[in-house]
Amino acid sequence: MSVAEICSENVVTCYLDDPLLEVADLLQREHVGSVVVLNADDEPSGIVTDRDLVVYGRSFAGNLEGTTVNEVVSATVVTVTPETSVPQLTDLMRESGVRRVPVLDDGTLVGIVTMDDVLVHLADELDSDELHDLAAVVEAESPRPR
Q: For the CBS domain, which residue ranges apply (predicted)?
């Protein structure tokens, strides 16, 4: 199975120079835990998570109005193509220590695949009652239809 079969095509994005408070509002409005950060050429430059806002944004608490995404985003972004296999994806996620991976097709952002997507896929593949129960919890919290 390939990443194309389990990823979400609805990717919430922001830009490096967007205010941090606007990104927090975006996360809340879209009911997601992360946004893909794009540079001026609309290329993925990183990912900002709700955790980043709390852990790293906290150091900017005195000036949240003037803080931009660029000040908290990780400079490293790991990407895959739609053709990447799920085992290749999980190896990459493990090696890179990431839970969310943008999907690029010829350099264009076409989706995002998360650890939750992999879990739901594995529950189906392994036909495990325990994994199906866990996947149901994940799907119930998911902002997008599967």
A: 7-65, 73-128
146 in a domain, yes or no?
no
Give the count of domains, the chain.
1
pTM equals 0.83
- What would the DSSP string read from start to end of 77-125? ---B-TT-BHHHHHHHHHHHT-SEEEEEETTEEEEEEEHHHHHHHHHHH
Give per-residue pLDDT as tens, 67-120.
888 888 877 899 999 999 999 999 999 999 999 999 999 999 999 999 888 988
Q: Of 5, 6, 11, which is closest to residue 102 (Cα–Cα)? A: 11
Q: Which of the 8 DSSP states describes residue 67?
A: -
Grouping H, G, I as helix, E, B as strand and the rest as coil, residue 13 is strand
Q: What is the CATH number of the domain that holds 101?
A: 3.10.580.10
